[in-house]
Amino acid sequence: MAPRNRDDNFMDVDSDSDISLLGDAEHRGKGKGKGKATDKRKKDKGKAKAKEQAYTWEASYTRSWDTVQEDEAGSLQGAVEDLMARGRRRRLLAPAAAIRRTIIRHLVLLLDLSAAMMDRDMRPTRFDLMLQYAREFVVEWFDQNPLGQIGVVGMRAGIGERIGEMSGNPQDVLKCLSERTRLEPTGEPSLQNAIEMARSSMSHLPTHSSREILIIFGSLTTCDPGNIHDTLDACVKNKIRISVVALAAEMKISRDLCDKTGGQFGVAMNEGHFKDILFELVPPPAQRAVARAGGPGANPAADLMMMGFPTRLPDSSPPSLCACHSDMKSEGFLCPRCMAKVCDVPTDCDICGLMIVSSPHLARSYHHLFPVKPYEAVTSMEGESMLQAACHACARIFSTSVSTAATSEGMSPWGRYRCPDCHNDFCAECDVFVHDVIHCCPGCGK
Amino acid sequence: MITAYLLWLYRSSTSHAPNWTKYLTCIISAMEKASHLSVIVDLSPTQWHLSAQTSNQYPLSIETFLSQLLAFLNAHIASKHENSLVVFGAFPGKSVLLYSSTELLSDDVPSLDANSYLPFKLVDSTVVQRIMNEFDAIGELDEEPSCALVGAVTKALCYINRITHPSSTTAGVAEDPSIVHDPRILILSVSPDLSSSYIPIMNAIFSAQKLKVTIDVCKVYGPDTVFLQQAAHLTNGSYIYLERRDALLQYLIMSFLSPTSIRKILAVPKQDKIDFRAACFCHKNIVDIGFVCSVCLSIFCQPLPVCST
C-alpha cells in the first residue's frame, strides 16, 4: 500500500510534464496500472494546459514573427523601418535630468582568454568577436570620455596577465588589442587573480576619478587561489565598480560582484545583444550618493583638479625632441608649467606630472551634464491651429497620412516629434540625430 | 571607361610613378564626385548697419555683400551639375532655410528671361525674396535678440545628416546615396562671439567631425571670433579674416569654392595661430593653468573649497 501511495504521489509530481511530453496515448499506456479516475483527471488537466501552452517556459517566449506584417504591396520595408525606429526611440526614453556623473574615469578591461572562448556559438569564435567588439568599444569610449584611461588585463592559464598599461591614448590601447597571436586563449580563467591585478593598478589613483572594471567572461568556472569574497570586499572598500558581460551563462559570483559594487550585469543572448550591453557601459555612470556628515542641504565639496592648457606649436616651428618619445618633431604642445613639448593631448606631462587638456576635450563631456530634453511624440491632431508642413531641422516634408503600422508607446503615427521648449516639430531621424549626436535642439538654439 | 582609366592611373601612381600622375588621379576623381555646400549667412541688422558706415576703412553694405554672395553661389552651382546647395539665414532670434537645391519650397517660378540662366535666377530670386520677407517681419524692436547662428549651424548639420544617410521616406522620394561627398559648411559672420553659445558650438563641432563635414569661416566684419576659429581648425577648414572687404568675391572664390578633395592640391589659406587656452569662469581671464571642478567642469583661476556652479 505504502509504496503504491508513494508511487501515486510520485506520479502526481511529474505527471504534468509526462502528459505534455508523451501525449495522451502514451500516458494511457503508462497509467494502465493506476486507477481510471486519476487518469481522467490528469488527462483533463493536461488537455486544458495544452490549449494555453505546451511548456511553462513558453510563457516568456516572444513570437517575434507575429509582429511583422506585410503591407498591401507585399513588401516588408515598412515593417522593418518601423521596428528600427521603435528600437531607436526606446533608447531615447532614458532619463533626461542633469545628474552628477563622474567625468574622469579609469577603466580596466578584463578579457577572458580561457579555452572556453574558442567556442563557436558566436560567429566566428567568441574570442574573435570579443576582440572586435572590444576595439570598437575602446574607440567609442574614448570618443565619449576623452579624459579617461583604459588598461587591459587578460585571464589566461590561471593567472592574470597585463596586456596593456593604463593609457589615455586610444591608439596605444588598440595596438595591444590587435596583436592577436599574443592573446591566444588557453587554460582556465582566474577571476580573483585578474581582479587583484586590476585593483592594484588602480590603487594609487585620486578619489575624484571613478575606478571601473569591465569583465567580459565566457567561461562557467574560475580557479582561484584564495577566497574571492575577500577580493570583493577589498574592491568595495576601494570604491571600484565592477561590471560583467557574460557570454555563457549567469554565475552567482558574477552577479554578486556587480551587485555589491554597483555595476551592471548582463548575459549576451546573441551577437547584437552582446554589442548592446557592452556599449551601454560607454556613458559615464551616475555618481553614487555619498553620505556626508554635513547634514541635509550641504553640497558635497567637489574636488578641484589642477589642469594645464597648452599652446599649440604649428608645423612651421623649428623641430625639437618631444618629452614622451624622444622623437624629433616640429609640431606639438607646450606644457604651461615646465615648457616641455608633448606630442598629443590629453596626457599627463612626463616632466612635471601636470594633466594637460585642451578646452575642446573638456567641452566634449559637457553634453552629459546639460542633456537635451526628449521630444514628445505628437499623438493627436486636435487643437492644432497652425501645423508645420516640414521638419524644422532638415525641411523634410511630413506625410499627411497616418502610418498604419501598430504604434507602440512613444511613437507618433504622423512621424512628428515636438520639443517641449520651442514647440517645433521634428522628424524621427532628426530626433535621433539631435539626441545622440548634436545634443543641441535646433529650435531652441541654446 | 573612365573608371578603367582611373584604375590604371591609380595602380601606376601607387607604384613608382612620378607625382604628376597622383595629382591627375586626384583631380579626375574629384571631378567625378559631386559636392555639397551649406552657406550660413549672418544677417543681424545692427551689425550690417555698422559695417555700411563710411567711417570704416572699407565699408560694405548689405546690398553689395548680397550681390557678391549670389555670384559666388552661382559659381558653385556652375562648377558641376550635381552640386547641391543649401542657404540658411541667421536672423536675430531665429534661423530660416532660405534656399535648398533638392526641393523647391515655393511654388512661384520666376519668369523666363532670354538674358538669364534659369538655375541662377532661381537661386538669386529665392534667396533675396526670403531675406526681404524676414527683414520685413522683424519690424521695430527695442532690444534686438542675439543672432541665432548656433541654430542655423545645427539645422545645416541635420540637413547634411539627412542627405548623407537617407532612409526611404514615406513620401517615396528616393535619394541616391552615392551623390553627396565632402559636405562643407561655410559661415559668413559679422557678429562677435556669444559666450552662451560656447557649449552648443562645441557640440556642433564634434558632430561635424563625426559626419566628416568641413566648416569654413569667413569673418566679414567684427572682431575675431575664437569659437569659429576653433571650429574651422578642428574640422580642417579655413578661417579667413577679411582685410579688404570690398574684394569679398575674390576671397570667396579663391578660398571657399574648391571642394575638400581638391584642397590637397590647391592650397587654401588657413590661420595657424589658434588660441586653445580657456577663460576662467569667475573673471573671464585667459588662464594657462586652471583648476577644474570634477563634477561640472567649470574652470577657475584660484582654488576654491566649494565649486560655485
Automatic annotation (TrEMBL), chain A:
Q: Which organism is it from?
A: Suillus plorans
What biological processes does GO assign it? DNA-templated transcription; nucleotide-excision repair; regulation of transcription by RNA polymerase II
Keyword Zinc carried by entry: yes
Extract the CDD domains matched here.
vWA_transcription_factor_IIH_type
Q: What is the name attached to this protein's record?
A: General transcription and DNA repair factor IIH
Query: What does UniProt give as GO cellular component?
Result: transcription factor TFIIH core complex; transcription factor TFIIH holo complex
Matching PANTHER family: GENERAL TRANSCRIPTION FACTOR IIH SUBUNIT 2 (PTHR12695), GENERAL TRANSCRIPTION FACTOR IIH SUBUNIT 2-RELATED (PTHR12695:SF2)
Supply the alphabetized keyword list: DNA damage, DNA repair, Metal-binding, Nucleus, Transcription, Transcription regulation, Zinc, Zinc-finger
TrEMBL record, chain B:
> What's the short name of a Pfam family annotated to this entry?
Tfb4
- What GO terms in the biological process aspect are recorded for it? nucleotide-excision repair; regulation of DNA-templated transcription
| GO cellular-component term (any) | transcription factor TFIIH holo complex
Q: Where in the cell is it found?
A: Nucleus
Keywords per UniProt: DNA damage, DNA repair, Metal-binding, Nucleus, Transcription, Transcription regulation, Zinc, Zinc-finger
Q: Which residues cross the membrane?
A: none
Q: Which family does it belong to?
A: Belongs to the TFB4 family.
Q: Which PANTHER family does the entry link to?
A: GENERAL TRANSCRIPTION FACTOR IIH SUBUNIT 3, TRANSCRIPTION INITIATION FACTOR IIH TFIIH , POLYPEPTIDE 3-RELATED
Assembly behavior: Component of the 7-subunit TFIIH core complex composed of XPB/SSL2, XPD/RAD3, SSL1, TFB1, TFB2, TFB4 and TFB5, which is active in NER. The core complex associates with the 3-subunit CTD-kinase module TFIIK composed of CCL1, KIN28 and TFB3 to form the 10-subunit holoenzyme (holo-TFIIH) active in transcription.
Annotated function: Component of the general transcription and DNA repair factor IIH (TFIIH) core complex, which is involved in general and transcription-coupled nucleotide excision repair (NER) of damaged DNA and, when complexed to TFIIK, in RNA transcription by RNA polymerase II. In NER, TFIIH acts by opening DNA around the lesion to allow the excision of the damaged oligonucleotide and its replacement by a new DNA fragment. In transcription, TFIIH has an essential role in transcription initiation.
Q: What is this protein called?
A: General transcription and DNA repair factor IIH subunit TFB4
Task: Please name the taxonomic classification of the source.
Answer: Eukaryota, Fungi, Dikarya, Basidiomycota, Agaricomycotina
